[in-house]
Write a structure and sequence with these properties.
Number of domains of chain B: 2
CATH topology of the largest domain in chain A: Immunoglobulin-like
Helix content of chain B: 55-70%
Distance between the termini of chain A: 46 Å
Shape of chain B: globular
CATH class of the largest domain in chain A: Mainly Beta
CATH architecture of the largest domain in chain A: Sandwich
Distance between the termini of chain B: 13 Å
Oligomer: heterodimer
Structural class of chain A: alpha+beta
Largest interface: A-B, 69 and 92 residues
Strand order of the largest sheet of chain A: 1-2-3-4-7
CATH architecture of the largest domain in chain B: Orthogonal Bundle
Chain lengths: 203, 193
């Protein structure tokens, strides 16, 4: 059996269990097959869109989400702040994907679950910072976002009050390896941060 | 329904799902659940089995999101591959289909199915590309992908050597790739807000 010949069948899930196992062992050692498989997988995946797609029953959505939520209830980070992901470079060949780098901080002050995502456009020209779950800033205070170039001074990148929902800030230009941070500042904002960041991501 | 994460890319959503952000899983389901269900239904021909396959696949997304590597392919491909694999496994377990005639390529009727415009466009594009394949290649792709037949089953049922089946699948997929254009030009899901 020439394992190189099995790439298309593998992409179509047309191998039996033994063949699949043999091919996957081969795949671990064959760069050429991995590259070919990545291409054929995308095409096989496109076939999924060829099927008529009636709406699934609404209970399917809720069953999935309820089961998923139940599985994660025991996984609560103990640290107040937690680094969850460094910048993740997405291959430029994935043209359909606008993210070239993003990073996430999640932390739990008390019961709150905060998610911050920095998403950069394909040319790094413009980025956005999206924050959910931060809560309203204290009386007389505001949240202020900063873009910090490597070795440079923090540049003010916008104010937001916090509260319910997701806040999206346009960050303007984000240089490579810049850090995006959020601090709590007096209402009206400041030109230089006066407190340690509550959120920090690298891109 | 809240679509707070509607502006994020699929890949960003998978990263969030890996960090237990369940609204990211919900958003991925809202983008691909319908296609996933249509695919599972086409392979399995049974709504209850199709639901099981889709549920298993999305829970696999939730459990293994941290292992997703964006450099190896799109998140949508990864998700739909998980769905397809589960549907094929299930159809092979089902003895019922084994006794049916070799007719898995029959498209369920589109009548009465309310589709959104983007999904309809995608379906027509894929079906048009399939139509343009040589008959033998189209038959091999449809029986394998939508029918869940293994290459050995196909060789036996079509009375062809295994090598011929392999080569039809390879040529068919390669030609489909050309017909569908570069993957990069494929329209990705975009927010309507």
């Amino acid at each position: 059996m020439d394992l190189h010949d099995l790439t298309a069948a593998y992409a179509l899930d047309a191998l039996d269990a033994d063949e699949t196992e043999a091919y996957e062992r081969h795949l671990a050692q064959c760069e050429e097959c991995r590259e070919q498989l990545a291409e054929l997988n995308e095409t096989a995946g496109a076939l999924a869109f060829g099927a008529v797609a009636p709406a699934p029953p609404p209970r399917l959505r809720s069953a999935i989400l309820e089961t998923a939520a139940a599985e994660r209830t025991n996984v609560v980070p103990l640290l107040r702040r937690r680094w969850v992901a460094r910048g993740l470079a997405v291959a430029a060949t994935l043209a359909a994907c606008v993210v070239v780098g993003f990073a996430v901080w999640a932390f739990r002050p008390g019961p709150r679950h905060v998610v911050a995502v920095v998403e950069l456009g394909p040319h790094r020209g413009r980025g956005t910072l999206q924050i959910k779950g931060l809560g309203t800033a204290p009386q007389g205070k505001t949240y202020e976002a900063w873009v910090i170039p490597p070795g440079g001074q923090p540049r003010p990148a916008g104010l937001f009050p916090g509260g319910d929902g997701t806040f999206v800030l346009r960050l303007g230009g984000v240089p490579p390896h810049a850090v995006v941070a959020v601090t709590v500042e007096r209402a009206g904002g400041v030109r230089t941060p006066t407190s340690p960041p509550i959120i920090e991501t690298s891109t | 329904m809240s679509r707070q994460l509607a502006h994020l890319s699929d890949e960003a959503l998978v990263l969030l799902a890996a960090r237990s952000e369940d609204s990211a899983l919900a958003e991925l389901y809202d983008r691909y659940g319908r296609t996933a269900y249509g695919l599972a239904l086409r392979v399995l021909r049974d709504p209850a089995l199709a639901e099981d396959a889709v549920q298993d696949a999305f829970l696999a997304v939730w459990r293994t999101a941290a292992k997703f590597v964006p450099e190896r392919g799109k998140a949508s491909t990864w998700i739909l591959t998980l769905v397809h694999r589960r549907a094929v496994d299930a159809v092979r377990r089902e003895q019922r289909r084994r006794t049916e005639s070799l007719d898995p390529a029959t498209e369920p009727s589109v009548e009465g199915v309310e589709e959104d415009a983007w999904l309809r466009l995608q379906r027509e594009r894929v079906q048009e590309a399939l139509r343009r394949l040589p008959d033998a290649q189209r038959e091999a792709l449809e029986l394998a992908y939508y029918g869940g037949f293994s290459q050995s089953e196909l060789a036996e049922r079509l009375g062809q050597p295994l090598g011929t089946i392999k080569s039809r699948m390879f040529s068919g997929l390669s030609r489909m790739r050309e017909l569908l254009g570069e993957p990069g030009t494929e329209k990705s899901w975009t927010s309507t807000t």
